[in-house]
């Protein structure tokens, strides 16, 4: 879009200000009219509507009180704009972080209350930044590839600009022309220039850091009536569309709204995507930003909510396991998405979050909740395709029993860039509100300065990213792709099939380039049966290699062991399992000698029992291990795992079933159903297929057949103990 057209759009679609006035933005502020400074991110009419109606709705009123407490505390502490010196979590880092929050809050409160004290505080804070910012060079403690000015990494400077621009927009028309010119030039233009012109390669990346940068620069462009900044943000520093915000929308999300780096970073990146998109919609609705790619940004909000259980995000890739739907970014995403869609399911999420925004979107949420419009969010079985074209793998959710029932997650995605872990064909399982089969996530203490400055710890590389730290097969005691994420980025996973049917939900995927000469195929199913209290998970993991090698299949379980297989325990000493690839961080507690018999392990978690029965196509040993070895700084959590080990085989099949059962009530001192209702599990290999047979305590049998050929028309037949199992297609269930 050329400059005159954009000027006209900015004028007529956003502010109602004549285009000639908008064009004056490039002139000194002393000659600009007051209309040049009226809010554009939220219009004066929208602010007046919120001021008039907001207190009628409890969620909006409560949010206003919360922000008032925070801003009043900042005002009482006085203006503090220190010389930057600290990493994340340090005093100066936290002060500048608190300042952008206070700035955004003060701007909103001024508009909602009319109290000039809020505008004066924001003005004085920005004038202090106008003195400091021109003097800054690279952050003295910066250890990022792109150092910030106010913060140790440029990412945080971008976040400051996103929120600072919102606060400034709300109070800009209260300033004198000279004050506006000073703040415009010495804070916002300088920050925008630093992020875009001075760090063009960083700004033009297809990455969440660049998303924050483009959002900050673009919103600054709207506030300052500078179409050049807007165009730079939307289409990259060369303005050719090969970079910038719009390209990021096109490249970083799949058609289903899955974000390349996984749910944790989707949560973080959601904020700049959705905040800037709202600013674009407010100022240039003709762009149809929320309709772009069939509404992919709104799908992204749905997708990140789907990627959660009991309010916590699935810890895929570099993720903190305690991050959930109540984070600032998802509160923002829910409010803005609801304003666009009026989806009543989002109101139920907002109720659980317990807060909203001081914005027109937040008011819409508060009105919807107060009006009783909330309906339960539709947590459903689904696959989220990965990659811009949806052809780079998928993330699968198999669910049963509602929000806190059973949820099986199968990770068949692409690498996830530098934050990706070496865990293709990994799985997680949730039940009864608990993470039963879990993932470590990232080794990091976010913003805890004493722990590596709040950044990722060395153990993130040596443990958390390594394959043995996940619930997937390790070949030759080495991690997938030689632990090189750039190699992994070039080698996607291949989904084979996904079906969420009644009584049987199933997914399968293949990875043929994680290890040289070895093809890995995993099929996971959640199966219901009238003789079983809850759905069970059946797992079949096949490895097809050209030469003999060693295989380890970990299961990182959560709970207190009740009964275990016979094993030799490490009583006098606690040996370490290996020397590298994550094995150096595992203590060995018990080892069962190789056997071709199936084994079981039962543990107790959250008042429910879980029995895991497992076996393999060749003798395996079973190891009970715990993380935390070779960790002198106590950076790792101590978590148990079971490892099935098969040595010296080219071909391998691992099969298992995880059964939830029973109840334990420590208050009433009652126990029920503590014994598994599955008597045995067996596997039979036939011509081009395998059949897993569960023998139930009732004497009935439940079988799952899985074919090598996944075509829908191929026919298969396997005989077991004189019984024929015949079917068409990649899989079948049998009840006998």
* Structural class computed from helices and strand pairing: alpha+beta
Radius of gyration: 28 Å
Number of strands: 27
Number of helices: 19
Quaternary state, please? single chain
Which regions contain 5 or more consecutive residues with pLDDT less than 50? 1-34
Overall average pLDDT: 94
- The portion of residues assigned to helices is 25-40%
Features:
736 residues; disordered N terminus; 33% helix; alpha+beta; 27 strands; twelve-stranded antiparallel β-sheet; five-stranded antiparallel β-sheet; single chain; 26% strand
Give a structural overview.
- With 736 residues, the protein is of the alpha+beta class.
- The chain has 19 helices and 27 strands.
- Strands 8, 9, 10, 11, 12, 13, 14, 15, 16, 17, 18 and 19 form a twelve-stranded antiparallel β-sheet that branches. The protein has a five-stranded antiparallel β-sheet with strand order 3-4-5-6-7, with no helix packed on it. Strands 22-23-24-27 form a four-stranded antiparallel β-sheet, with no helix packed on it.
- Helix 7 (154-171) packs parallel to helix 10, helix 10 (208-223) packs antiparallel against helix 11 (227-235) and helix 10 runs parallel beside helix 13.
- The N and C termini lie far apart (67 Å).
